[in-house]
From TrEMBL:
CDD domains: GTB_UDP-GlcNAc_2-Epimerase
Enzyme kind, highest EC tier: isomerase
Record-given protein name: UDP-N-acetylglucosamine 2-epimerase (non-hydrolyzing)
Domain of life: Bacteria
Species for this entry: Heliorestis acidaminivorans
Keywords per UniProt: Isomerase
Known EC number: 5.1.3.14
Domain UDP-N-acetylglucosamine 2-epimerase: 25-368
Gene Ontology molecular-function annotations: UDP-N-acetylglucosamine 2-epimerase activity
Assigned protein family: Belongs to the UDP-N-acetylglucosamine 2-epimerase family.
Length: 385
C-alpha cells in the first residue's frame, strides 16, 4: 500500500480560515491523506470563530497576534515560528491560501526546507503592487514559490500562464469560499442578537457595509461614509448595518461620520455564520473586501466595491459587482441607481456567479492525489469563466 501523503495546511487570518476550512475537512475525509493544520493566528479572535464553526483543531498554533502589530512583526514571528514545525512534520506538501502575510511567509519557510507548496486561490492579479497592499505582492511572491497552483477561474489560470507557470501545475478548481458559503447559509436562520433579528425582519432596504483596506484609510474612507449619509438622506426607507473593523483608524472615522445616525447600526465584527446569513438578508453590499466579491453573487446580492482596482475581474465582467472607488459622488449615485431602478438591480442580482459550484475542495484533494501518483484521475476543471 502506498505511503499516505502528509499535507500541512497553514493559515493565520479569518478569511484564510473560511476558505481553507472546507479544504481541511475534505483532506480529513480522504483516505490516502494525513492532514495537519498549523495556524499563525495573525488574527486571533476572528480566526478562532471560524475554527470553532468548522470544528477544526489546529495541531500547531503560533499565536503571534500582538497589539498594533506591523508587517515586520508578522513576517519575523511567522518565519521563525514555522521553522521547527516544518522540521518536525516534514510534510509532502504545504497548502497556503490567497494573499496574506502568513501565506507568503509559510511559502518562503517551506521553500527554505525544499518542501512543495500548493497555493489555493492562485493567480489573482491587479498588476499594481501597491493595490491591494501588501496582498498583491504576497500573492504574486507565493505564486513564484508554489509547485501546485489551484486557480479559482480560467482568468486566474491565464494570469499564471502569462507568468510562465507550467500549465501542468495549474488546476482550475472554482473558489473554496463557495464551498464554505453553501454549507453555512440557511433560509430559516435566526440571529442570536434580537436587535439584529428585528432589523432584518422590519427594514425593507438594508445596506450591508464593510471597510478595512489599508489604502482606503483616512480621507477615502471618510468619503465613503459621507456618501452613505447622503444615500440615507435621499432614501428614508434605507437602513445601514455596519460591522466595524477593529482597526482604531477605521473606528474613529466611522464614529465621526455615522455614529449618531438613527438609521445606521454599528456592530462589532461578526462570526462567519451570522455574517454570511446577514449577507443573505441584505439588499446591497458595499465593501472593500475581496472575499465578499465572490460570496455575495452566490446569494444574488449586488456588490459595490469600494476600491479602484480588483484582483477579481471575473465578477466585474459577469456583472455581479461594480468598482465604484471611494468618491462620495460616485458611490451615492451608484447606490441610489440600484435602489431606485429595479432593472439595474435585477441585472446585477441575477448575473451568474463566476466563482464556483461548491466542489472546489474535492478538486483540490483529487489534484493532490494525482500529483503524488496516488490516483491516475485528473480532477474535472471548473469552467464557467
Amino acid at each position: 500500500m502506498p505511503k499516505p501523503i502528509k499535507v500541512l495546511s497553514i493559515f493565520g487570518t479569518r478569511p484564510e480560515a473560511i476558505k481553507m476550512a472546507p479544504v481541511v475537512k475534505e483532506l480529513e475525509r480522504t483516505e490516502q491523506i494525513i492532514s495537519k493544520v498549523a495556524v499563525t493566528a495573525q488574527h486571533r479572535e476572528m480566526l478562532d470563530q471560524v475554527l470553532g464553526l468548522f470544528d477544526i483543531q489546529p495541531d500547531y498554533d503560533l499565536n503571534i497576534m500582538a497589539p498594533e502589530q506591523t508587517l515586520y512583526d508578522i513576517t519575523a514571528k511567522a518565519l521563525l515560528g514555522l521553522k521547527p514545525i516544518l522540521e518536525q512534520e516534514k510534510p509532502d506538501i504545504v497548502l497556503v491560501h490567497g494573499d496574506t502575510t502568513t501565506t507568503f511567509i509559510a511559502s518562503l519557510a517551506s521553500y527554505y526546507q525544499q518542501i512543495a507548496v500548493g497555493h489555493v486561490e492562485a493567480g489573482l492579479r491587479t498588476h499594481n503592487k501597491y493595490s491591494p497592499f501588501p496582498e498583491e505582492m504576497n500573492r504574486k511572491l507565493t505564486g513564484s514559490l508554489s509547485d501546485m497552483h489551484f486557480a479559482p477561474t480560467g482568468t486566474s489560470r491565464e494570469n499564471l500562464l502569462d507568468e510562465a507557470v507550467d500549465p501542468e501545475a495549474i488546476y482550475v478548481t472554482g473558489n473554496t469560499v463557495i464551498d464554505a458559503l453553501l454549507a453555512t447559509v440557511r433560509p430559516d436562520y435566526t440571529f442570536a442578537d434580537p436587535n439584529l433579528q428585528q432589523i432584518v425582519q422590519k427594514e425593507k432596504e438594508i445596506l450591508l457595509v464593510t471597510t478595512h483596506r489599508r489604502e482606503n484609510l483616512g480621507e477615502p474612507m471618510r468619503q465613503v461614509y459621507q456618501a452613505l449619509r447622503e444615500v440615507l438622506a435621499q432614501r428614508p426607507q434605507a437602513f445601514i448595518i455596519f460591522p466595524v473593523h477593529k482597526n482604531p483608524a477605521v473606528r474613529r472615522v466611522v464614529e465621526e461620520e455615522l455614529g449618531q445616525h438613527p438609521r445606521v447600526q454599528l456592530i462589532e465584527p461578526m462570526d462567519y455564520e451570522p455574517f454570511v446569513n446577514l449577507m443573505n438578508q441584505a439588499t446591497i453590499i458595499l465593501t472593500d473586501s475581496g472575499g465578499m466579491q465572490e460570496e455575495a453573487p452566490s446569494l444574488g446580492k449586488p456588490v459595490l466595491v469600494l476600491r479602484d482596482t480588483t484582483e477579481r475581474p471575473e465578477a466585474v465582467r459577469a456583472g455581479t459587482v461594480k468598482l465604484v472607488g471611494t468618491s462620495a459622488t460616485i458611490i451615492t449615485n451608484e447606490t441610489l441607481t440600484l435602489l431606485k431602478n429595479p432593472e439595474a438591480y435585477k441585472a446585477m442580482a441575477n448575473a451568474v456567479n463566476p466563482y464556483g459550484d461548491g466542489k472546489a475542495s474535492q478538486r483540490i484533494a483529487q489534484a493532490i492525489l494525482y500529483h503524488f501518483r496516488q490516483s491516475d484521475q485528473l480532477p474535472d476543471e471548473y469552467g464557467l469563466v
